[in-house]
Amino acid sequence: MAEAKEPNPEFTRKVVEAGGKTVNLCFQCGTCTGSCPSGRQTAFRVRKLVRRAQLGFEEDVLPSDDLWLCTTCFTCYERCPRGVEIVDIIMALRNMAVRKGYMAEPHRKVAELISKTGHLVSLRDEDKALRGRLGLQNTPPTVFSDPKALEQVKKIGEICGFDKLIAGGK
Amino acid sequence: MAKYGFFLGCIMPLRYPGIESSTREVMDALGVELVDMQGASCCPAPGVMRSFDQTYWMSVAARNLVIAQKMGVDVLTICNGCFDTLFEVAHKLNHDPEMRKKVNKILKEAGVDEYQGNVNVRHFVELLYKDVGVEAVRAKAKSGKGMKAAVHYGCHFLKPSNIKKIDDAERPHIFDDIVEAAGVTSVPFKDKGTCCGAGGGVRARTPDVALKMTKENLMNMQAAGAEVIVDCCPFCHLQYDAGQAQLKEFGIPVLHLSQLLGMAFGLDKAKLGLEVHQTKVNL
Fold first, then answer.
1. What is the fold of A9-99?
2. Is B4 helix (H, G, I), strand (E, B) or coil?
3. How far is B215 from chain A (nearest CA, A)?
4. Per-residue pLDDT, A169
5. Whether A153 and B41 lie within 8 Å, measured CB to CB
6. Cis peptide leading into residue B44 (ω within 30°)
7. 3-class DSSP state for residue B104?
8. Is B2 at the interface with chain A, CB within 8 A?
9. For burial by CB atoms within 10 Å, which of A114, B189, B194, B225 has the most?
10. Would you say A53 and B135 are in contact if contact means Cβ atoms under 8 Å apart?
């Protein structure tokens, strides 16, 4: 006989606290899975992810790649007959996963670029030249042309411990 | 003249600046004044940044809202991602004093003014429909060439609809109405309203999965005879434009609504910045 895993209500409570407050309302109808454009292309099943979160199966959820296949399109969230705020649950789980060090390198790089430069893409010479040709300011009037503003953004990263968080990836 | 803080974000000013120049020209023609938000940063992007740390995500977004607050204006964005972050954070902070207190503590320590909770965030498609009006767009449109367009709403313009309350999330019409006012026919297609595939950090982490979703949408658009894809988000724009170059098929030109309107209003074509599009635009 197969050994059944014990539910872990402590983990479920943490999910609720982290923003997944509707997780226990789910009655597993599967409308979410049937609506999911990512699940149409992959083995990702939203219903199962929510069930694992309900049962507190931390080790099945946090290290899982499935957690990162949601495009946050909100289709399941819109259609859920129980008002389960599924994207909020996924965001709570992802925040918890990242705190445990589960983050993909391409994501870590994006996060690092924002925390260091204030933007998620770089300003290259060719971008400046094209902006100039279009009659726009070569350097956009953002943190790119305002060092004081950039300092504030960096400071927010420091205060929130964001820099430390993204240094700890695995 | 209505006045808004123009939030630039990242992908538009840095990868598709033609969307920025088109937006500035089109809004000016329609009597909407755009003022630069000096020192604004990334919104920050809802996909990766909200997934990583919601407190940091909210605090950086709140700093952007404070810039608009100081200028005494509401925010206007032409990007679904920026709209999602800034609208949702403004909604949370404008309605939840406890959360505002928590974020303001972080802002204060970083030398940023307190956020008072009064800034509203607008998406330009919603502004065009509700404030400017479809008829004003029709009056300016000189030639839409009667093209058939696949209109791509994206996800975060209308959803989550319980807080955005802009249009029906499953059967929307306001974006189509503006496109049609520009003299272009919006064609129905299978699974219209489906995600482009890029959001939630999927494009960065698993680009192959993102591209599979994009491909399915492209097949449906092509089957409906679409001659152009019209989007209202630079990230969806990037996904369809670069995605087709990667797939080496379809070849359906991609225009952001600002570029389509620029074309219809008879703007100088050089101002649309179409030469950086990876899927050639011959319209």
1. Fumarate Reductase Iron-sulfur Protein; Chain B, domain 2 (1.10.1060)
2. strand
3. 11
4. 56
5. yes
6. yes
7. helix
8. no
9. A114
10. no
Smallest Cα distance from A5 to chain B, Å: 28
Assign B99 a pLDDT band (cuts: 50, 70, 90).
very high
Instruction: Output the pLDDT for position B283.
Output: 87
Give residue-wise pLDDT tens across range A3-56. Answer: 888 999 999 999 999 999 999 999 999 999 999 999 999 999 999 999 999 999
To the nearest 5 percent, what fractions of chain B are helix, strand and coil? 55, 10, 35
Give the model confidence (pLDDT) of A144-157 as tens digits. 999 999 999 999 99
The dihedral formed by the CA atoms of B172, A71, A69 and B55, expressed in degrees to the nearest 10: -140
Q: Are A69 and B51 spatial neighbours (Cβ–Cβ below 8 Å)?
A: no
End-to-end CA distance of chain B: 32
Say which range, A75-79, B144-148, B178-182, has the weakest mean pLDDT: B144-148
Stretch B8-26: mean pLDDT: 98
Q: Where are the domains of chain A?
A: 9-99, 105-167
Domain boundaries, chain B: 2-123, 133-276
For residues B204 and B111, give the distance between their C-alpha atoms in angstroms, rounded to a whole number: 32
Cβ pairs bridging A and B (under 8 Å): 206
Given an 8 Å threshold on Cβ–Cβ distance, is B46 in contact with A72? yes
* Architecture per CATH, B2-123: Up-down Bundle (1.20)
Q: B6 φ, ψ to 5°?
A: -85, 110
What are the chain B neighbours of A165 within 8 Å (beta carbons)? 52-53
Helices (H), chain A: 9-17, 31-35, 46-55, 58-61, 75-79, 86-99, 105-117, 125-133, 147-159, 162-167
Q: Is the ipTM of this complex over 0.85?
A: yes
Nearest chain B CA: its distance from A8 CA (Å):
23
Neighbouring C-beta atoms of residue A5, cutoff 10 Å:
12
Compute how many other C-beta atoms are within 10 angstroms of the C-beta atom of residue B54: 20
Q: Which residue has the tokens 């329609």?
A: B30
Q: Which helix (H) or strand (E) holds B254?
A: strand B254-256
User: Residue B218 — pLDDT band, cuts 50, 70, 90?
Assistant: very high
Residues linked to residue B148 through DSSP beta bridges, in sequence order: B185
Q: Does B273 touch chain A (CB under 8 A)?
A: yes
B179-196 pLDDT per residue, tens: 999 999 999 999 999 999
Note the CATH number of domain B133-276.
Answer: 3.40.50.11810
- How far is residue B61's CA from residue B55's CA, in Å, rounded to a whole number? 10
Looking at residue B40, the DSSP 8-state letter turns out to be: B
Decide if B2-123 and B133-276 have a common fold: no
